[in-house]
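Table S2 (continued). Query chain:
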Amino acid sequence: MRFASKNFNGRPSSPTRAMAVGEERRASLAKVVCTLKNAVEKLQAAQGMQAVNERRKTAEQLTLQQQQQQQQQQQQQQQGQQQQGQQQRQQRRQRPRQPQRQRQWQVQLLNSAFASLADAVLEEIEELGCERAQLKSDSSQLKAGLRALDARVQDRLCEMGRLEDRVEAKMALTAGLESQVAALSAASAAADQRLADLRAEVQGAKLEKGQAVAAMEAQRAQLTALQRGQVKEIAGESIRECVPGLVSSSVQRHVPPMIDEGFRAPLVRLRSGGVAAKRATPEALEARCCELRRELAAQGALLAGDLGRLARESNALRAEACSASNLAKKVDADLSALEPRVAQIEASEAASPKAPLRLVAALEEKMEGLAGQQARHGRTVEGVVRALVDDASTLARAQRATEGLMAGQQAQLQDTKEALLRSAQKIPV
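Corresponding output:
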């Protein structure tokens, strides 16, 4: 149809334009429906005029036929009357003694003919009544079919409205698709950045843990060797001069800068005591060794506490690493689920930078298909309506022809009755 090709050639570039086009299509559909109704009314009027002309022509023909039949019947009656008159004259001449019996016989013959003619007329009237009832039943069936077709047309129109609502919803979804893709891209980038940060934090935590454990093990082993060396060096006087240097060198080599001030204070006291041990006596050295043992035991307890704290921190870091790995797995799963869509979108964008426009164009093609389907449906409805109008006009013509035939037969029957009455009046009793 012309309105479909006119309104659906242009492709809207936005949902607002699509809504405007939908309104225009609805307006055009309303105009087409109004035009179709006017055309159907004009067709019905033309068919009514044609039916009136045909009925008039049929009535004139029936009137002419009836006049001709009446003339023929009158001629036949005149001829029959003449023949009967001649026969009666001859019979009177031949049998002048039996006029009353002959008259009775003629009256009986006329009565039997009138009865047979009346029976035939009644049979024809009954047949015409049956045909009229059949025509009424056919017209009621056609009216029921028209109502059912009207209901089907209304259902199709409702279905078309639902399809238009679905198309509008899909257009709105397509309009929000670009923002969803951008949000997904931003979320993917944020997830990648967070995953990289978490991996870097986990790697740094692992490195710090390894370094801390190695340093603690080295400190424990070296401090145990230092204690054995100190016990051996205390046994001889030659070792007295080396104790301060060994202590200071061991402190400088094995105490890391991360140990807190509470651990550095005993070492400072140990260094000062080692410097003063150059001029001390063996009893003072033994006392100093005991003090060193106690300080070393305290340092070992401190180291054990630090190791426990590091173990707890390492467990916490391990738990965080597990949660980070779980989060990374989840993010990887989400990314793996999003990667095909993102790859598809990127491929479509790389292939054609106007992919969203293509989506809109695809939706427009779907809308055009729906409009074509609607046009085909409109043509189908129009054809059905035309067929129903033709059937109704045919039925009306047949009914009018039947009514004209019944009227003609009734008039012929009335004329026959009148002729029979006139003949009966002419016959002397």
